[in-house]
Amino acid sequence: VAITAGLVLGSFFYGYILTVLPGGVLAEQFGPKWLIGLGVVITSLLSMVLPAAAHAHYIIVVVIRVLQGLAEGLVFPAMHTMISLWTPITSRSRAVSIIQSGSDVGAVVAMMASGVLAESTFLGGWPSIFYVFGVAGIIWFIAWCLLAFDTPSQHPRISNGELEFIIVNQGNEQAQLKRKVPWLKVLLSIPVWSSVLSHFGFNWIHYIFLSEMPTYLTSVLHYSLGANGFLSAVPYILGAFLCCIASLASDLIRKRGSMSISNNRKLFNTLGGMVPGRNG
Q: Which residues are CB-contacts of 160 (< 8 A; sequence separation ≥ 6)?
């Protein structure tokens, strides 16, 4: 049972890793709006199929989770492309962190709501988790289609002042994005690989907690499903709060010019990795 559960929980990332790398390139070619939207709505539709798949065979669940990973892998790279198109350079850290904190807030809501839904009789109990969040994702997709635009210049309701502010404060960044990327130099760069290893270490701990902590709380510590949901949400409540605080501090340091951009990034990356690394 444990091996099957591990396969089901981990199968999402088998698909995710295949699209997360080309996702940014595709977003630059076709625009980030539809990659983000399609990634979310495909995941939502597949989520609503999962209860029936679970009653059929766990292999079907694994296949669906891989497909969800393929869809979701497009979202975060495309999100960063959209951020680069919409935000001034000096507000970039704050924008990324506020948007990133939405992932933590989403985890909080999902874990708390999932515990309550699983213990209820609504739509059969635990299957209601997948139906409710699937419908929520579809509603979000409709709103996204109506309200989101790839670039500020495409937005029909943006003011001239807002548009000018964004363009002026991006400098020549958009022109630089169109330059040919020296991929060989990138792949041989020590700073690039240090960033990759740092991100790998953080995500190793993060996704183990995300995937396995609810199982640990129920199977080992024997918490109820409702209590499990609330306890599993605690790290993400703190994460969302501290993410916003750190981004404000980073942008403030950058505006004052008291530290180089490189040292700024190193400082906050180190602080962000020390605590989970020490306790992981």
A: none
Q: In which residue are the tokens 């009653």 written?
A: 55
> DSSP code of 180?
P
CATH superfamily of 2-279: MFS general substrate transporter like domains (1.20.1250.20)
Q: What is the DSSP string of 166-203?
A: HHHTTTTHHHHHTSPP-HHHHHT-HHHHHHHHHHHHHH
Which two tokens mark 42? 């495909």
Query: Is the sign of the CA dihedral 142, 148, 154, 157 positive or negative?
Result: positive
Q: Is the pTM of this model over 0.70?
A: yes
pLDDT > 90? residue 47: yes
Read off the amino acid at residue 251.
Answer: D
Q: Which residue has the higher pLDDT, 153 or 213?
A: 153
Distances (CA, A) of 92 to 24, 99, 100, 151, 250: 17, 11, 12, 16, 10
